[in-house]
Amino acid sequence: MNVIELFTRSATRFGDRIALEGPQGRVGYAELADRVFRLAAGLRERGLRPGDRVLDLQPNQNSYLETDLACMVAGLVRVALNHRLHPADYRRIADDCEPRGFIADASLVDKAADVMDRCDVRVVVGDDYDRLIGDSEPLRAPDIRPLVSLNYTSGTTGAPKGVRRHHQHRLTSMVNMSLDVLGGWPNPDDVYLHAGPITHTSGLFVLPFLAAGAKQLILPSFDSGAVFDAVANRGVTHTALVPTMIARLLAHPEAPFLDTVKMLAYAGAPMPADQIAAARHRLTRNLTQYYGLVEAIPPVTILDPTDHADASLLASAGRPGRLIELAVVDDDGRPVPTGESGEVVTRGPHVMPGYWRGESDAKALRDGWLYTGDLGRLDENGRLWLGDRKSDMILTGAYNVYPREIEIVMSGVDGVTGVAVYGVPDPEWGQRITAAYTGTATEDQLRDHCRAHLAGFKVPKRFRRLDRFPTAATGKIDKKALIADG
């Protein structure tokens, strides 16, 4: 079984039902399949061949899901780009994966123009995209290859690494999401709401609802009022959000209790226990948290609605999924006693086979286990309690941000003699990026320089000018002291 076989079965069984409803209108299952296979043929006719990498830069819209499926039909390796990234990020990813194709929404072409110019095949979502589909006959013989995508993460130095993802990983995630996060297989009358970026958390729920013949409703961007309206008037039964979004729902002056929502899942960043309790009291009792990472397609662990009823468990990441092995080990890879802290490791069909270039494989993959870089402990009931990360990575608004990348950018400003970037707890963002620096540069200079060289979510929320940095016994900057001081 592969993803395309699963999709074509749904198209045959649920042909007249609405599959997608979003900024580009409504499309039924049979029509969606026709468009996907025509698009796959069009991409091949323009010169793309199985195994070619194709960059895909789109906001939340129907065509984002169409291109995902069409690339699989054509045997292409899709590299989805977050439209919030900086153009420099696109260049680094392109340098690594060497794409031959680029699909971009018309609204984003200028942002990625230099990378698009390097690609042999370019498709602009708009008239060009529609013409490509309309002029092509459906591809009759899909060329299914194991590798379906490269999903990029960053190393602790900020260098991009492409995680190889196969059909197996997508299908494993579908099963685990359905049985462990959603609490059972969706049914055709369910409606899933993509309220956040499909490139991120929300995209993991595409397959469970596609397999069920259910409708997927796509919002162009997150808006609290639009979420409440979709639940009240458009039949939404399930959605997944990041903690920042839940905080905004709770802050809405007319936030209703979401009686009809069967499951509100959340992930991507730490969420304060009091905020979880507030969401359960004011939004829905049907809360589920899950934990995962790019190298181990989520979910890895799940905190289900029953666990959420116990206030003492709200800081836990929950138990491993049913197809997941999980352990906590010491620096030598030996399991630590129950309740003791160590590095979280996992193995199973959800774990990547390796990185695109093979870099860091030996460090990340050992004896069949993926070493996550997260610290945590397992309690006597098998629940995972996450602690600090082994690296200094900051989780802000469910995005991974690496301090070193920001520090390098800030060091290029005249008048900066030293810089240290770190995250401090924040009720809305999970962590707030803070930059402490020494020198004569002004906050405005630093902010403008960061905005010119970094994605918006990587720009520090606060700049602190210091006379000198606190240091540890080794002479290095003491970031713990900086964090304690805010």
Automatic annotation (TrEMBL):
<dbReference type="InterPro" id="IPR025110">
    <property type="entry name" value="AMP-bd_C"/>
</dbReference>
<keyword id="KW-0436">Ligase</keyword>
<dbReference type="InterPro" id="IPR045851">
    <property type="entry name" value="AMP-bd_C_sf"/>
</dbReference>
<dbReference type="InterPro" id="IPR050237">
    <property type="entry name" value="ATP-dep_AMP-bd_enzyme"/>
</dbReference>
<dbReference type="Pfam" id="PF00501">
    <property type="entry name" value="AMP-binding"/>
</dbReference>
<protein>
    <submittedName>
        <fullName>Acyl-CoA synthetase (AMP-forming)/AMP-acid ligase II</fullName>
    </submittedName>
</protein>
<feature type="domain" description="AMP-dependent synthetase/ligase">
    <location>
        <begin position="7"/>
        <end position="356"/>
    </location>
</feature>
<dbReference type="InterPro" id="IPR020845">
    <property type="entry name" value="AMP-binding_CS"/>
</dbReference>
<dbReference type="InterPro" id="IPR000873">
    <property type="entry name" value="AMP-dep_synth/lig_dom"/>
</dbReference>
<dbReference type="Pfam" id="PF13193">
    <property type="entry name" value="AMP-binding_C"/>
</dbReference>
<feature type="domain" description="AMP-binding enzyme C-terminal">
    <location>
        <begin position="405"/>
        <end position="476"/>
    </location>
</feature>
<dbReference type="InterPro" id="IPR042099">
    <property type="entry name" value="ANL_N_sf"/>
</dbReference>
<dbReference type="GO" id="GO:0016877">
    <property type="term" value="F:ligase activity, forming carbon-sulfur bonds"/>
</dbReference>
